[in-house]
Amino acid sequence: MELLDKIGKKATKTYKVTAEKTSKLAKETKLKIAMSMNKSNISDLYEEIGKKVYEKYIREEKIEIKEELLELCAQIDILASEIEEARAEILHLKDRKQCFHCFYEMDIDAHFCPNCGIKQTKEEEIRENQEKQEEDEKKIEENKELVEESKRKETQISGKEKTSKDVEENIELEDDEIV
């Protein structure tokens, strides 16, 4: 009876460890997929920016970065921030950390970076992470506002275009009825 209890406890413990590791792997895989998709989206945005700049160059027009490319740049900032958050979460799942100086990946308990030798203190990490996170959140909020404002402007412009097209069509219909 005692042997069966030991086997049961060992099996339960093994199951819990396996389930935890499987869960971590699944979450890590989802995060890596999300990172990959965000990187692909960033690439697409870079391409779109390049096309816009080249079109302006060909037409010999002045490039107004603030007006024309701000929304795309804001989207890139948001995606880059999401990639960084996913990367940090993956490190956490692996019980790893990154050197704040050279960004080398190391064990979470390491006191010195094996790559550059810089002392790794938790206080510095916490402070830098908090500052970086606050900056990232601030940028994200600013960029979201810019994207929303740009979308509102596009909606207003497209609404005006439709209105002017409707007026032109109505004038043409009235001219046809008169003739």
Automatic annotation (TrEMBL):
<feature type="region of interest" description="Disordered">
    <location>
        <begin position="124"/>
        <end position="179"/>
    </location>
</feature>
<feature type="compositionally biased region" description="Basic and acidic residues">
    <location>
        <begin position="124"/>
        <end position="168"/>
    </location>
</feature>
<feature type="compositionally biased region" description="Acidic residues">
    <location>
        <begin position="169"/>
        <end position="179"/>
    </location>
</feature>
<protein>
    <recommendedName>
        <fullName>Zinc ribbon domain-containing protein</fullName>
    </recommendedName>
</protein>
